[in-house]
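[09:14] KT: can someone run the structure on this one? pasting the chain below
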Amino acid sequence: MALDLLRQVLDDGANLGEAESGASCDPRDRAYSRHLAYGVLRWLNALDWLASQLMSRPLKRKDRDIHRLVLLGIFQLWKDGTAGHAAVNETAGCARKLGKSWATGLINAVLRRFQREQAELVARLETRTERFAHPAWLLSALQQDWPDDWECVIHANNRAAPLWLRRNMAAASDDLAERFQADGLTVTTHGASATALRVEPARAVHDLPGFDEGLFSVQDAAAQLAAGLLDCRPGHRVLDACAAPGGKTCHLLEHFPGLELLALDRSKARLRRVEENLHRSGLDGRATLLAADALDTADWWDGQFFDRILLDAPCTATGVIRRHPEIKWLRSPEQVDEAVELQRKLLEALWLLLKPGGMLLYATCSVLKRENCGQVGAFLERHADAAESFPDVAWGRNAGPGRQILPGEQEMDGFYYAALRKTA
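[09:31] RB: done, structure tokens below
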């Protein structure tokens, strides 16, 4: 199952969170297969280097499944603390299930050699850039953008993220933390967000008390900051321009009753996720949902200006790698260029729909400056009727313009926000 997840991600470009994890109905198997796939993707090029030191020659492309079995075995022995005999025997035995019995002995020999030489191999790895488990282009970009912080970013990216929930302020959930604690969970609040609850140990969300009742949603504490920054008022006409899957849409409606909110997304399938989340949160009928491309304003805009616009812009998602380690291997410098150009076009198109005195909140879950302060700085230079309007907050860092959170800071994901006020 873990091998198939890796195939879907590395060969088909699937997001790991949306990949199918096999037909087994045992939730423990599904959870463990994902754990193994996450681990390999988190340390992929470091594992690749270790494997290269243990094999006399690389395997052919048609046998990349065997290569990935070796990576799964090394991950278990190196990072996961799996009992040695189990990691070696079960991983080697998997080759037989693939119809490649010839590889059983190879995998067995490679993993047993790793057991013998682990200390020496890991010491050699520590002298190489592969130890950071990031592709060279992304490592270089982080070093350039964050010369004093890049190592902290790297280490945060290589750790699993905590489970943050957003308490539904529109529901009767005052006792939510008590319900979690009664269920054997530890609950922590967050100083930057009154609705954020961290739950440990992490558990499948459907197994948490109150989920089906709509008492909470899964959302990182950094993403929960958007609603407060928009500073809406009752009756405000608000556009959530890239709304799916609907976390910020729901939060806005929970936080500010009486909004006239349009949730827009170009994907009908993803917009159904917004609808499902609104329904589960008890917010049916509180927003207008529209499947349309935000850039094509002539196709969907009714000519009435908005008081507030939330542009949670499509981005490289380099701030949420600790949740989605496949991002490291699915992104490229060309995709950064494409994201920057799309963001520029969206800012230009949506700015025209904002009332004088209104605010556009630009947000990304990226840590690359080209997508963030570089993007917003260039926009401000082009628009004399735009001014930065950011409140005094105790989180993140001044990014000039905007505010940047780096991954792991105050236990949050990497996020960028810029509040732009229309002056005329």
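[09:33] KT: thanks! The mean pLDDT is 95.
[09:34] RB: yep, looked fine to me
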